[in-house]
Amino acid sequence: MRKLLMLFVTLLVIVSISLFADPIILKAADDHAEGYPTVEALKFMGKIIEIMTNGKYKIEVYPSAQLGSEKETIEQTILGAIDIDRVSVSPPVAFYPPIGVLTLPYVFRDQDHMWKVLEGPIGEELLKGLEKVGLVGLCYYDAGARSFYTVKKPILKPEDLKGLKIRVQKNPVMIELMKTLGASPVPMAFEEVYTALQTGVIDGAENNPPSYYETRHFEVAPYYSLDGHTRIPEVVLVSKVLWDKLTDEEKLIFKTAALASAEYEKYLWNQWEEMALKKVQEGGAKIFHPDVTLFQKAVQPLYDRYPAYKEFLERIQAVK
Ligand code: BDP
Prior knowledge:
- By secondary structure, the protein is an alpha/beta fold.
- It is 45% helix and 18% strand.
- The longest helix is centred in the last third of the chain and has 35 residues, at 248-282.
- 43% of the residues are buried.
- It binds beta-D-glucopyranuronic acid.
- Beta-D-glucopyranuronic acid is lined by residues 31, 70, 87-88, 143, 169, 190, 207-208, 211, 234.
């Protein structure tokens, strides 16, 4: 009887500790606003983690670059000051160059091909590689295809880019791509682009339709040419500082929650792509469909400049 009572008391203590212990708050960063597919997917991932760890972890998502621009949040994530970071694959290239292969122009045939590559051995290998620099890559999100938009005149052929100042992400491959096309690359944080377009610091930028719409860049750069030069996915990163503290079961919960959130993001993404193109046109943007083969030809010299990507490229192209 005494033993039973002791057991009961011990159980009660364990249950109350797990029910009433303060949750461990994890900070998650995203540079998009509330409602954007990546932000909503991060929240989705957070909820699953919260439920599956019985409230041990609570994920607080900070949207709109509140925790800094992407380069800064990556640095903070490496240090462990930010726990979870959703960024474009572009800025991590400066920290872990192999992942730059995903940012080469026209590397994927289409959305389907991209997902086969990302969800196959190549995608996993690149996520794993990030650990070398203190980042644990959990999953990718869709970010569609990026195209040029400009202030004064549309880009209908590569020659139209000659001499134009085009904002690029802080990614060495993107800088080289602009140079190959004859433009002057201006690396700049995402949050600064609207003002830079408005004040004439740059002549144009490039992004996918949901970002073009969400940032209202279409108001100041209304010529949008769908050349789809890159298909750079997003990535969800966890700080290795946090990761090393998780139990194996928790790691599994984080990974599974991230993969489930990726499915949710893809669903939202497809809706946003369609909606964004409509909205920007209602807002006065003009959409152009240039001959993509002209751009594909013009970027060829870039590939020779990256012999390190050759093997990865061949493997990507072999994915059917
Ligand atoms: C958007 C990405 C965002 C990047 C931004 C950029 O979703 O993460 O910061 O592009 O151009 O498509 O920097």
